[in-house]
Amino acid sequence: MSAKKIAYHGLLTSIMLVLGLVERQFLLVPGIPGIRLGLSNTVLLYALCLMGAKSAWILMGLKVLLGGLLYAGASGMFYSFAGGVLSMAAMLSALRVRGVGLVGVSVTGAAMHMAGQILMSRLLLGSWAAALQAPLLMAAAVFTGVLTGVTAHTACQAIAGGNPEMLRRLQALDLAGRKKR
């Protein structure tokens, strides 16, 4: 990996960590921990679309590890890892489906992230108690997934507009949007 690419990954990792810290300051649903806006996932969507799957996997791993070390702790790392792996796999699959769009990819990823966390809860706690909150968690995942997807779509369009290579990548993924006539 080139020094430029390493620096780029470092910059994106720091952006994810700062966004993760910012979103920890807002409690979306009182009494239910873990429901967050998903601001840092905007960076993962950007990486997935404009840098490729390998970079997105690396960033997801860095987010889990460093986020856990900085503010989530060991158990938070387990939940984040389970959600991250399922989310990334689902988003990669959704990107292959024509017409889904970046918002659909984001919602798919958010829903699978919640599913991964529920499964990890079952594994760590030995109970399906977290599954009782699944309807609320999935509704929150759809809501936050739409917000994250719209944000990522807007950012990717703006960044790719000035970069022909990134614009070709978005077009190859059928995410470039409509051409102006």
Short recap of the structure:
This protein has helices spanning 3-23, 41-50, 53-95, 101-125, 134-161, 164-172.
- pLDDT averaged over residues: 88
Which blocks of ≥5 consecutive residues have pLDDT under 50?
A: none
- Write down the Rg: 16 Å
The rounded distance between the terminal residues' Cα atoms is 40 Å
Strand content: under 5%
Topology:
Layout: H1 3-23, H2 41-50, H3 53-95, H4 101-125, H5 134-161, H6 164-172
Question: Can you walk through the features of this model?
Answer:
75% of the residues lie in helices and 0% in strands. By secondary structure, it is an all-alpha fold. The radius of gyration is 16 Å and the shape is globular. The protein has six helices and no strands.
Task: Output the keywords.
6 helices; mainly alpha; 75% helix; 181 residues; globular
